[in-house]
Write a structure and sequence with these properties.
- The chain has a domain of about 150 residues: Gcn5-related N-acetyltransferase (GNAT) (Aminopeptidase, 3-Layer(aba) Sandwich).
- It contains seven helices and eight strands; from the N terminus they run αβββααββαβαβααβ.
- Strands 1, 2, 3, 4, 5, 6, 7 and 8 form an eight-stranded mixed β-sheet that branches.
- About 25% of the residues are buried.
- Helix content is about 25%, strand content about 25%.
- By secondary structure, it is an alpha+beta fold.
């Protein structure tokens, strides 16, 4: 599903070019809903004099409240699996201090200690103290857009549904240096491989799939019929036991996730 369809609440800004004249600045940002937002000098971007026309989209960003749909999700930078899938180059950069990451796990502990509530089968588990930058794309105006978002988040009045202390996002490999230069820090996240169904689904019985079990004949039945029924019941029970013995419980697989976090002021 598209993030614009599932994210709730959602707000953001975009930048468009003005008349293609050298040195002209973009007029400011607008919210996703189309309403004018407060113009910010930091959000303007230089527009080249060639190969552009007025009104071209130059950058956009959307923000929502961080939400997960896994019951076992947690922030944990010190877990063995948090960085287990890093390639050799990334692992070396972290050892050499060239990457900004949650070295002692303190930031992950803070995030994990924040309040959260919800149902993973419906609205998801919502973390009202954590904002998420769900989408960000820009040509030459990414920094002012990100600064504008952080400024907006820090100035939002506290409400029952949200009071942001942190900003999280997932970054592509090429964008990591940009986000680290803006104060973001890598934090480890893990979740177990959740191969489960709803409890009510697991307890529900499909009557169409119920197989009749052999029953013993009544006292006036022929003794051979009774013996055949007993043998059939014994064979059915043996097949069930063999099937159970052949099943091997698969251990929970831990999946890691690389997330970048920014503390709001």
């Amino acid at each position: 599903a598209d993030r614009l369809d599932v994210d709730d609440p959602i707000f953001g800004f975009y930048v468009r070019t003005t008349t293609p004249t050298a040195g002209v600045k973009s007029p400011g940002d607008k919210s996703v809903g189309g309403k004018d937002s407060l113009a910010s000098p930091a959000a303007s971007a230089s527009v080249p004099s060639a190969s552009v026309t007025e009104g071209m989209l130059q950058g956009f960003v959307t923000v929502t409240t961080f939400t997960t749909w896994q019951k076992t999700f947690r922030f944990d930078s010190m877990h063995d699996s948090a960085c287990a899938f890093d390639d050799a180059g990334l692992a070396q950069d972290m050892l050499n201090g060239r990457r900004q990451y949650d070295r002692h796990g303190e930031l992950a502990e803070e995030l994990q200690a924040t309040v959260r509530c919800g149902d993973p089968w419906n609205e998801g588990i919502v973390w009202p103290r954590i904002a998420e930058i769900s989408l960000l794309g820009a040509l030459g105006c990414g920094k002012p857009l990100l600064e504008l978002v952080i400024e907006r988040l820090e100035s939002l009045p506290a409400k029952k549904t949200r009071n942001y202390d942190y900003v999280v996002l997932q970054a592509t490999d090429n964008s990591v240096p940009f986000y680290e230069s803006m104060g973001f820090v890598r934090v480890g996240c893990i979740t177990e491989n959740e191969n489960f169904v709803k409890e009510e689904e697991a307890s529900a019985v499909d009557e169409d799939k119920i197989q009749p079990t052999p029953e013993l004949a009544s006292d006036d039945s022929d003794s051979s019929d009774v013996a055949e029924a007993e043998q059939a019941a014994s064979e059915s029970a043996a097949k069930v036991e063999d099937a159970k013995a052949g099943q091997q419980e698969s251990p929970n697989e831990v999946v890691s996730l690389e997330v970048f976090v920014y503390r709001t002021k």
